[in-house]
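Collaborator request, handled under Task 6.
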Amino acid sequence: MERLTAQDLMLLWPDELGWPEDIGALAILDGTRLLDPDGCFRIEAVRHVIQSRLPLVPRFRQLLYTPRRGLGWPLWVDDRSFDLAEHVRVLPLTAPADEAQLLVTVERLRRRWLERSRPLWEMWFLPGLSGGRVAMFIKMHHTIADGAAGVALLGAFLDLDADVPTTLAPPWTPASMPSSRDLIEDNLRLRVQAARSALSKLFQPVTTLQQMREAWPAVREGFIKERAPRTSFNLPIGPSRELAVIRSSLDVAKQIAHTYDAKLNDVLMSAIAGGLRDLLRGREELVEDLVLRAFVPVSLHNEEHGRARGNQDGMMFVPLPIGEPDPVRRLWLIAAESAERKKHVVRPPEGIIARNRLLQRATMRRFARQRWANVYVANIFGPPMQLYLAGAQLLEVFPVVPISANITLGIAALTYAGQFNITVVADAQACPDVEVFAEGVRKSLQALSPFPTSR
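Structure tokens returned to the collaborator:
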């Protein structure tokens, strides 16, 4: 019986407030093997490949079931009426579609709510791009995976070679729904475990106090010591998004980091700071001495690379010196601050407080007026080699992250096969000028590059 963890549950409540917590990826594929001679997408052939890999991704055939009061937290149960055709679908673009048309279509698909009556994922194929290319947009609910685990799940459908034969998946027999008695016993067992853990902490006050002392600096740095400045784009989010993509070379980004004795993540944060500077200046707002704050998830996964599962993220808050006009000095400032902030990663809460649903919901409602961060930034490490889906070469991949509360700008970078590609997800009302921000990020990367041009 697999219950949601406390961290998973925190990702479920935003749905109730109109902040869908869906993560995803937009991929561009070589369509040579995906289209028949008439140009029609071979959807059944692709479904056959996806079907063969489902045993590697059990969550994709499971429902999120919320039992009645007294039977414990939500849990994953097998979908006895699972139909792959409801999840792997095709939506042709009007050919030849450009990138703007593609992003508008992806936004339409992103806005579709994932029905709780079905497993919480969808995979859409979008033929019609120029050059015979085909786009793929996959999304899943955040309760299934975080960024690192999402990359691992997507990897289950990918191959190292275009000619890997498709094998038949073994017959699947869904497990029975647990009975009320099973749920009561499991809930009681979990409550007893939680009570024992709490009592253990009470009977070991020295150890407990030491753990609290170790955690306090991170909590103080993240939530108490500093506040995020008010900006024109930190407003309650609406339902619509504007998307922008930024292409960059991983080699160039690594060379920038090496040249200035920084990390790859520092290069990303510095470029984002440059984009925010241009965004606010474009709105004729003062940026002198302005320091914004970025909410940055920190992976706590210990699994082998590519095998991460579930949600295991901490968080840190990184200052972004928007007022600094020199991109090199801005990078140095961010690198120094990031190195310090990594010592104060806020870990997910544990114990009785973490398991209190009322407290979780109350915290989430207050989040709409939070002053902890101005933007959300994720840096996800993907596979370094070229991969294939159903025999089609995966040309590019762009991550798509959710935004919530009053954080109207979400930025995610993903490394893949020598690429360092960035996606911007912006609230359409708060940031209709998202392309100004995206162009500022591109300019900042170019200004830092030791080469004449960057990809």
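The cover message to the collaborator said: "The radius of gyration is 23 Å. Residues 180-203 form the longest helix (24 residues). Please let us know whether this matches your experimental observations."
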